[in-house]
Structure formats: C-alpha cells, structure tokens
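Recall from the previous chapter that SMILES is a line notation for molecules. Here it describes zinc ion.
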Amino acid sequence: MPLITRPGNKKFRYTARMMRLAATLLVIFSVTACNQAPTAQAPAPPPNPLPGTKLSVDELKAQMFHVSAGKRLKGAWPNGARVAVGLSFDVDNATATLSTGNLDYEILSRGEYGAIDGLPRILRMLDRQSVPASFFIPAASAVLHPDVVKHIQAGKLGHEIGVHGWIHERLPLLNDEKEEQRLLNLSIETLQKMTGKRPVGYRAPSWKFSTWTMGQVKAAGFLYDSSLMASDDAYELLLDGKPTGIVELPIERILDDSPYFGGNADGSNPTPSAAYEVFQAEFDVAYEEGGLYLLTMHPHMMGHRSRVAMLERLVQYMKRKPGVWFATHEQIANHVKPLIGN
Ligand SMILES: [Zn+2]
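With both inputs in hand, we obtain:
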C-alpha cells in the first residue's frame, strides 16, 4: 500500500510535515557544521605573498639587518698592486643532486665530470699560469672523490681549501638549527682530517644562509665568508647590527660560471666568449677602481675544454696588465682584515 497517495490525504499531510521538519533539521545541522573547523577537503587559504607589507619599520629593520654589510674594507694592495684577483672553484661535483635524493645518473655523471676531467684540467691551467686559487668543497664531495683533495694540494701554488657544506645542503630548505650545526661541524672536521689544516674560509651551499648560519659561522671562528654580495669590495659582516670581525669577500651572479653554463642554461649559451666579455669588462673596472675581483666557478661546469681555454685567455689578459695580485681568498682576507680595526 503506497504511503503517499494524493494531496488532502491525511497520511500525505503528515508525511509532508515530517519531511519539512527533516529539511529544517538538515539546514540547522549544516550551519552548525560550517561553524566547526574546516574539513580535510576544505582548501587552505593561500599564504600571503607579501608579508613584508604588514611589518612595522622596526620589524623590517630586524629582518634587513639580521645579516648585513658593515665597514667597507678597501685599502692599498700589497706591493703597490692595482687590483686583487681571487679565483674560486666550488667543487660541488654531484653533491647538490645527491642531497635531493635524485638518482638520475645522467645528471649525477654531469657532476662527476668535475672530479674526473674538470678539476684536473683547471689545475693544469693554473699550474701553467702560476696562479693560486681557492677551492670550496662540500666535504661529502671530497670523501666520494678523495683524489680532488690530493690533486689540489699536489702543486706548489698553495691553493686553499674552504668549507662548502657537507653535501651541498640548501640551508633554508634544511631549516633545522641543530642539524645545520651538526653538518657544519662534520664538514670542518672532515676537511681538516683530509687536508691537514682547519679551513678558515666559508661559502654557503648555493650561497644561501638560514636564520642561524651567520651565528654558527662566527662561533666556528672562520676568518671570512664568501657567500654574499652587498658590495664589489670586501666588507665586515654584521650580525643583528653588531660587528662580527668576519670579512666578507663578495661574490656576484654575473661573476659566476653557473648562470652562463649551469643547469638552467643547460648548454644554451652558444659560446664561452659571451661570459668572457662580462668577466673581462668587470675586471677592467675593478682595475681602474683599485678594487677586488672575484670569480666563482665549478669544475663540472667551467672544466670543459672550451671553457678552460676561455678562462686561460682571461688570466693571460689580466697578467698582461701591471700590478695584478693573484691570491687565494685566505690571503686577501688576511690582508684586509686589519682594516676592521681602523
Ligand atoms: Zn656550490
């Protein structure tokens, strides 16, 4: 027997009332549910892309000057030199790839090239030109290819070896104060054991500092850092506005081989001479200004045949000018550090 027959039927009216009641209860329940915490399916509100707009001037100052530039350290160079030239090589090889867990062996082999062919070719060129350089090595890179340390130390030019993280860990991504300290300690100890000397120079992997990096670098007693770029010339680093006594030897993206030849360029730069043009023009002005000229390079990028040839051409060009002081970063930092006290 059907429950609902037709309007006017008693059973129909009763059933309709019950249905209206049920609908009302459903609406009340829905409204109540909406006031509860959002369900798992509810989309999260988008993060504010411009949090800086909400900060007071004091808050902006605290952020801006957590790590910043202090006194400029520009004075006379030794023996009346016009310019100081510091060539640096970050011996990353495959560590940046390994740090992310990427086991794509095509990419890993690109890094391995630095240890196999790139670094030896660069060292042969530096030997030919009698020019010293600084090598910043992720300690895991040295452990995986111990020959790189032996090769760097083999010559008589006194090349320097500095810290460049354990496995090229990007510190803001790591975002862990204790783990960052553990990796820094491990990097220093490993390089000290392998080279016979405690490193005095620090370069952050990918030049990226976390909130804690500056404090840890200072506590570790480094002579200098070479990761930041607030000036063309050396300067003293400040931590929360206070002098640290640490020399910054500034790097610069346009004075780095990576933007021209690295992962993003991916071989799209058709000729090494495009990079040569920028490198030489920057040197020319540094020479005129009596300043500092630093290059950052990577054996797995710059170590290719045509690029080492380009670098040798640049070194020869610089050597033809009078008063060019080729030095390690350590030598340059030791030379400018007394200016902090003046
Ligand atoms: Zn690096």
